Amino acid sequence: MKKSLLLFGAVFILAVACLGLGGCGESRSAYAGNYQSMEPFAGKGHVDLELKENGEASWTHLGKTLKLKWRVAEGKIWLYTKEGGLLIVTPSEGGKILSADTTGEWHPGCPPEQCVLFKRVEAGE
Amino acid sequence: MEPKQPPPMGGDNSELQVFELGKEIRVPSGARIVSQGEAPQAFYVIKSGLVKVFRETADGIRTDLTDLGPGSYFGEVALVTGQPRTASVEAVAETFLIEIAKDDFDQVLDQNPQLARHIIKQLASWLVTGDRRLESEVVHQVKLRQISWFDYLLMVGLSIVFALVFNLYNDNQIPLFYHPGGKDAVGEISLSQALDLYRKNEAVFVDARKDSFFKQRHIKDSLSLPVIFFDLMYPMFEFMAAQKGGAKDKPVIAYGGGPSRRFDLELAGLLNKKGYEKAMVLSGDYQAWQNAFPLEGQEGKKPAALPLGFAGAIEWVPLSIFVLLLIPPIRRSPYLSVFCRVLLGWIFIQFALSKIMRPAVFALNVVDYGMMPAWGVNLWSLALPWAELVAGLFLILGIRTRAAATLIGAMNILFIVGLVNAIHHDLPINCGCVGEAGEPVNWWKVTKNAGMLLMAIQVFLYDRIFVLDRGGFIWRERKI
User: Fold this and answer.
1) Residue A60: closest C-alpha in chain B
2) Chain B residue numbers touching A12 (CB-CB < 8 A)
3) Are B153 and B217 contained in the same domain?
4) What domain count does chain B have?
5) Same domain, B307 and B414
6) Minimal Cβ distance to B393: which of A12, A44, A80
C-alpha cells in the first residue's frame, strides 16, 4: 500500500508538472507584441491589443482596458476573459495579421460580421 | 512446486541405482521436457543446466513456479499419484538429465526406503505450502473483489483537496460558489407587459446567452450581449442599442437565462451599473419567451467541429469494445482489463488536463447543459477534472482499480445523460469533454461514452493482473 501510494504520488507530481507545461501551450514568442484593429470597433475608436510573453494580454478601447489571458495552441491564439469566455484568434501573414472571432465559438473561418482584424504595430509606429 | 533438494542419492547405493537405471539425455535451451496434463512416463534428475517449472491455464495465463538446477529432480508427483502431469518443465539453458522410466522409478523406490521417505516428505511439504498459497490467494481474491467505501472516499477526497488547493494558487481561479446577485438585485417585468413594450417598440431586448444559442433562436430584432464577453462587447451593444433608438432611460429587458438564471440576471445587473436604470429580466418561466415572442434564428445550427488531433482520435478506440465483448474468451480476459484500464486512464487524464487550468471555461460548458443548479456549477467544474485525473492515474497504475473503474463509469453515465439531454433539446453546445471549443455533441459522442462505460464495467468485473495494489482497506474481519 505504502509503495503504491508513493508511486501514485510520484506520477501525480509528474502529471501536474505536465499540466503546468501543457497549460502554457506552445511558445508565445512568435505572436507577442502590439496589435491594432484595422477598422474602428463599435463605430468609434480602434482596439489596441497587447499580447505579453508571460501570457497576459490587454484589450484597450476608448481608454478602457480589459485584462485577458492568452496561449498558443494548434497554431491559433486562444484569448480568455476572466468569466471564461474564449476568443479564438487566427494569425496569418506570419503573425502580422490576427483575425479574432468574437462569437466565442470556433469556426472554420472568422465570421465576417463578428470578426475583428488586427494588424501588428511595430515599436515606434 | 517448491525448489527441490537433491534426493539422498549419495552415501549408499541409490546414486548408483539412479545413474545405472537411467539414461542421460541432452535438452537444448528452450525445449519442453514435460507438459502439463500429459501422462507421466519418466522421472528426471538434473545433472547439469537449468530448468523452469510452470503452470499454464486454458486461457493462457502462465505462472512460473520455480527454477531447478543440478542435483534437483522433477516428474515424481505424477508417477507417485498416477495422475497427469501437474506442471510443465522446460530447459532454460542447455541441460543434461538422467531420465528414469516409470517402471524403473518404482523399482528404485522399492529398493530405496530412504529415497522414498524423502519424496514423501517433500510431497507433504508441498501440500502444506500449497494450502498456505491457496489461503493467500483466496485472501487476495476476496480483497480484490471487495469494494471498500474508503477507496471511494480516498479518491473523491483527493480530488476535492487537490481541486481546492490548486484553485487557491491558480491564476485562473474561480469562486467556489457562483452568485449572480439574485432576482432582488434587478427589476422584473411580466411576460405580458414585456410583450406590450415589444409591440410598441418601447424597449430594447437583449439576449444574455452565448452566441451559438442566440444564433439558433432569439426574439426577433433583439440584440446579443453574452455576459461572458460583457466588457469586451459592451461598446458594440451601446452602438447597436443607440442605432435602435435605445437610450439609457428606456427599458432594457435581458432574457435567455437557463434554469439557474445565471446569464440574464447578471446581464441586467451589469447594465444597471452602466447606467441603464430600467434594465430588468422577465419574471416567471425562464423559457416562456420562446412561446410568447416572434422568433428568428437558424434552427439546428450547431458549433463547428474543431479537429482535436491525437486526443480526438484516441476517443474512437473505446468503440472496439463492442466487438471485443462478442468474443467469449476475450470478454473475461484480464488482459482486456489491462487494455481497458490503460485506454480509459489515458482518455480521462486527457479530459482532465484540458480543463484543470481554466475552470471558468469548463464552468460555462457545465452551464450550457442546463442541468446543474447555479450553486453547484463552480464546485463541480473544479472537482470533476481532478476526479478524472485521480481516477485515470489510479487505473493506469493499477491502484484501487475497481473503485477507479466505478468512478469513471459513474462519470460516463453522467456524461451520457447530459449528452442525450443536449441532443434531445437540440442545444447548440460543445461537449466540453476534451477540448475547450468545437467538440460536437452528437450520437457518436454518446456511443463513444457508452464504449467507455462498458470498458469500466469490464475492468470492474475482471481486472486482476498488472495491479500494484489490489486490496481494499479491510475494515471488517472476514473468515476465509
Assistant:
1) B232
2) 390, 393
3) no
4) 3
5) yes
6) A12
Residue A107 and residue B304: Cβ atoms within 8 Å?
A: yes
Q: Is residue B89 in a domain?
A: yes
Q: Provide the domain count of chain A.
A: 1
Long-range Cβ contacts of B296-302 (<8 Å, 24+ apart): B296/B217, B296/B218, B296/B220, B296/B221, B297/B214, B297/B215, B297/B216, B297/B217, B297/B218, B298/B215, B298/B216, B299/B216, B299/B217, B299/B426, B300/B216, B300/B426, B301/B212, B301/B215, B301/B216, B301/B428, B302/B212, B302/B428, B302/B440, B302/B441
CATH code for position A80: 2.40.128.640
Per-residue pLDDT reduced to its tens digit, B2-59: 445 545 444 445 555 667 778 899 999 999 999 999 999 899 999 999 999 998 887 6
Residues B270 and B411 occupy one common structural domain: no
Domain housing B283: 187-296
Please list every residue in chain A whose beta carbon sits closer than 8 Å to the beta carbon of residue B398: 4
**pLDDT digit string (tens) for A86-123?**
999 999 998 899 999 988 888 888 888 889 999 999 86
Examine residue B182 and state whether it is found in any structural domain, yes or no.
Answer: no
Per DSSP, helices labelled H in B82-229 are 102-111, 113-145, 149-169, 191-200, 211-216
Distance from CA of B380 to the nearest CA of A (A): 15
Q: Does the pLDDT of residue B82 top 60, yes or no? A: yes
Q: What is the model's pTM? A: 0.73
Residues B129 and B161 in one domain: no
pLDDT in tens, B448-480: 999 999 999 999 988 878 777 654 433 333 333
In this structure, are B154 and B253 located in the same domain?
A: no
Last residue of a domain, one of B279, B296, B313: B296
Q: How many CB pairs under 8 A join A and B?
A: 116
Choose between B172 and B309: higher pLDDT.
B172
pLDDT tens digits for range B185-243: 788 999 999 999 999 989 999 999 988 899 999 999 999 999 889 999 999 898 888 88
CATH of the domain at B223: 3.40.250.10
pLDDT at B147 over 50: yes
Closest in A11, A22, A81 to B393, CB measured: A11
Q: Give the chain A residue nearest B215 (alpha carbons).
A: A103
